[in-house]
Amino acid sequence: MSFSDFSKVESIKALNEFLADKSYIDGTNATQADVTTYKAFQKEYPQLTKWLNHIYSFTGKFEELPAGKAPAAAAAVEEEDDDDVDLFGSDDDEVDEAAEKLKAERLAEYAAKKAAKGPKPAAKSLVTLDVKPWDDETDLEELLANVKSIEKDGLVWGAHQWIPVGFGIKKLQINLVVEDEKVSLDELQQEIEEFEDHVQSTDIAAMSKL
């Protein structure tokens, strides 16, 4: 038994029906009959074989693949009575209902899998911010208090230190953690610089993703 036997009749459809209750072309184990049939199929339908093998490699990711448009009849097999076999769709109401049911089941499985994983953790950044005072007479403790008085959802102030910059002037260097989607660093710097009596300018000294 080989693919040539099937190609004389209905080709793909006949081979599919023949294998409905079988795992192999002949017997209960893979034999040269399977190899011969596979090679014959591959030779007659090289692009279809290539496509099937390639798509099979995505089996574990089927539910995660993006939506796409399938042609109404991407391929058809000419039967003995010249009727076209639509491999991708059918006008039969029962087939459509089954397809919709299967689609709904897969969507439900995907939603359940996604829910089981839980929400993704928020993207956060660790930032080291430099805050420069006007001069050596600026009250640094008040400057620090003003900076840390700013409270936002997604903002956490961390440790700080005073860094000498010359002429008796020290700048405030303070660490903070922000949730990227909730806190704009540009806006935060603007708010700090609004303490005009104490703050000359601000700069981001370092930043890394957590």
Describe the structure.
This protein is of the alpha+beta class and 210 residues long. The chain contains seven helices and six strands. Helix 3 (32-44) crosses helix 4 (46-56). Mean pLDDT is 81; it is low at 75-82.
Mean pLDDT: 81
Instruction: Give the overall shape.
Output: rod-shaped
Structural class of the helices, strands and pairings? Answer: alpha+beta
Amino-to-carboxy terminus distance: 62 Å
Strand-and-helix sequence, N→C? HHHHEEHEHEEHE
Q: DSSP strand (E) fraction?
A: 15-25%
**Share of helix among residues?**
25-40%
Radius of gyration: 34 Å
**Would you count the extended β strands for me?**
6
Poorly predicted ranges (pLDDT <50, ≥5 residues)?
A: 75-82
Biggest sheet, in brief? 4 strands, antiparallel
Could you give the order of strands across the largest sheet? 4-5-3-6
Number of helices: 7
